[in-house]
Amino acid sequence: MARFDDIKNLVMSLEADFEKFYEKGNQAAGTRVRKGMQDLKTLAQDIRAEVQDKKNSEGGE
Hints:
By secondary structure, this protein is mostly helical. Helix content is 87%, strand content 0%. Helix 1 (2-13) packs antiparallel against helix 3 (27-57) and helix 2 packs across helix 3. It is elongated and about 50 Å long. It starts with a helix and ends with a helix.
């Protein structure tokens, strides 16, 4: 569950930058949003690989 918390924390940390970019047009906030989304993508891919490895090592339940 720690990995799920990592995802939630990352998304929540981006909330202010989303608001600044979409509501106020702050371009620097947009850059931070893009970086955060890339981090989220990487984290999701890592979790996906962990789940697949665990599934395969436990006999594929």
